[in-house]
Amino acid sequence: MSYTPSNSRVAVRPPFLATFALVFGAIAALFAIDMFLAKVERSETAAQAARLYGQGRQLAAAGRYNDAIVSFRAALAVSRDNAAYQLALANALLGAGKPDDTETLLRELLQRDATNGEASLLMARALARQRQIAEAESYYHMAIYGRWPRDAEANRIAARFELIDLLVKLDAKQELLAELLPLQDEPLTDPATRARIARLFLVAGSPDRAAGLFRRILRHEHQDAGAYAGLGEAEFARGNYRTAESVLVVALRLNPGDAEIREDLDLCDEVVGLDPTPRGLSPAARFTRARKILQLTFDSVKQCAASPALGTLTAQATEALGRRISAPRQADAAEADLNLAEKLWQARKTSCASAQPPNQALSLVMEKVSQ
What's the CATH code, domain 190-274? Predict the structure, then answer.
């Protein structure tokens, strides 16, 4: 019997493959349409979030922080993890006087990105507003050493200056000096910034560094009255009164209308004329200055509360001021007058708490004499 191949399988296979191809094509088409629609939706959603973000920025720029907060929150509702939107909201919350909410928002952001410089800076501001100073300082340092996508060096220096301004307000001189030291060697070409740093060294109680920076400025800016004035203040703070006087004279010549320079120079002149310690001062000049110091010190204790010790010293001062001293005895008399003035000055510290502040020039000279 001969074998005849069956045609049933051959006949069925083409319609099956065609149907399968149609189904697969339909699925692929539906998937493509779905992907396209999802992409369109995402695009529209991103555009909506961007519009809300832009609206919020305009409101914040106009000082309408509460309205800006609403827009930024709406943008974040659409685009939940957008760091730029979160930072903008944090800025608006801070501007609206809501540091607690700012802190909460930024802690979430910094958990995801601990090196974000801008977020750290905003956190530092929020904590400083809440008087959490130690933690604020920590976040300022995180901002200084953190990651900044643009203008990194400028932003880090600005963050350090912001911390410095906070420390100035707190009168934290030791911490202030620690923040200034990294800045003194920065390649800052702007004379105004260098002068600012130099003056901050004065505030931090480091007149030596301040003087060095002002001299560096004056090597290039020979007619800078402000730098001469700053150098004069630094030399004055170092006790170099004659040097300060000569520098302040130059500053006033360059800027004759500056009342502050004139006031500093007048004080410097008064101290220079009263200081009994310069080398080469004649015995007669030293005696004249010592006698004047004793008189000024005696005058400064007249309003003090009476005490046995102070009474004895004022009696001795009255007697000394009434003596006539011959030229050969002036050197010894000057030393005796200065010793008596120093004793009166020390007694004044305990007996004259409610008295008027003493003459500033006298205070500076007595501080120098006591060293």
Answer: 1.25.40.10
